[in-house]
């Protein structure tokens, strides 16, 4: 992964870690369920953005590199593994 | 929220906090993108289960209570707010 | 289900049926993959709106009715079945 | 798109068209909301599989071809457009 992607993802994950701790506190404090679910949704969306940054970097570098190689088995494996992770990430 | 739901959700969130920290470490260690995306997907699924527990408790208690009340404005508001949070949580 | 919900959902489904036929035509015509995926996403979103209308009606009527009943087994079953359908619909 | 992908997607879409008509009938017949939502979920999942087939073909052919070209603007545009459609399709 590119250094800029790494740094950006790590900063996002640090914020997400704080949000997860904040969620535990909301529950301890007996906050209203609807506010908690709204906040869980926000944290999932933030994780989605990490996922998208990693995928963009992966397609822009690992997939590109595999495609530029002459190794057609490597190309097939790269496409297979990208599709598998996309399918898993959709649920 | 019921005490058992609270405790279960807080325990889940503590594990999720550890998973988020683990994710930052995976990125620092230069782990393969596909493994990172797979793990982000797992954390999102774990948050989904927190959300589902909170919603189940909410429907079983807050919604039930609103419906048992004679206050039809409260009933309408409760349904509206449940639908809104469901719609938001689907994305 | 309320008559207005029924009519609105049936009209939506008629439009969706046309969109699905249009999708098959796009594929036959050899349209660009990205345009096809964009259109599949639009049809899935349209189905989501049908689902939300049905759920809103269900919560506003079936769930409300179950909660107003004195039958606590019926209440539990209604909540269980609502949660089950929500969990399934999230994937 | 490859002929086999085209044919497979068109067959899937024909089945989906029938499922959408079936859904309208379920609503007209006053079937239980939960059964309707379950069926809408099944149709959305079937559309998801069409989307995945198209994407797999797209990555295996259009993206591969762009990557094999020496045209770096074409490569960038292909990655950008793939990421955009993935982001849209996640909601």
User: Which structural class should the secondary elements of chain A be placed in?
Assistant: mainly alpha
Distance between the termini of chain A: 25 Å
- What series of H and E elements makes up the topology of chain A? HHH
Cα Rg of chain A: 18 Å
Measured as a percent range, the helix fraction of chain A is over 70%
Number of strands of chain A: 0
The number of distinct helices of chain A, counting runs of at least 4 residues, comes to: 3
Strand content of chain A: under 5%
Show unreliable segments of chain A.
none
Question: How would you sum up this structure, described in words?
Answer:
The structure is a homotetramer of 91-residue chains. Chain A is mainly α and 91 residues long. Chain A is 89% helix and 0% strand. Chain A is built from 3 helices and no strands. At the A-B interface, helix 1, helix 2 and helix 3 of A face helix 1, helix 2 and helix 3 of B.
Any chance you could write out the topology, listing elements then pairs?
Four copies of one chain form a homotetramer.
Chain A (H helix, E strand, L loop, with lengths): L2 H26 L4 H36 L3 H19 L1
Helix pairs in contact in A: 1-2, 2-3
Concise structural overview:
Four copies of one chain form a homotetramer. Chain A is mostly helical and 91 residues long. Chain A contains three helices and no strands.
Provide the descriptors you would attach to this structure in a database record.
89% helix, 91 residues, homotetramer, mainly alpha
């Amino acid at each position: 992964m590119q250094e800029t992607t790494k740094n950006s993802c790590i900063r996002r994950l640090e914020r997400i870690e704080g949000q997860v701790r904040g969620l535990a506190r909301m529950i301890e404090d007996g906050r209203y369920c609807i506010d908690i679910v709204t906040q869980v949704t926000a944290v999932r969306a933030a994780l989605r953005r990490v996922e998208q940054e990693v995928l963009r970097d992966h397609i822009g570098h690992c997939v590109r590199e595999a495609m530029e190689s002459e190794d057609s088995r490597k190309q097939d494996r790269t496409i297979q593994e990208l599709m598998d992770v996309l399918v898993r990430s959709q649920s």
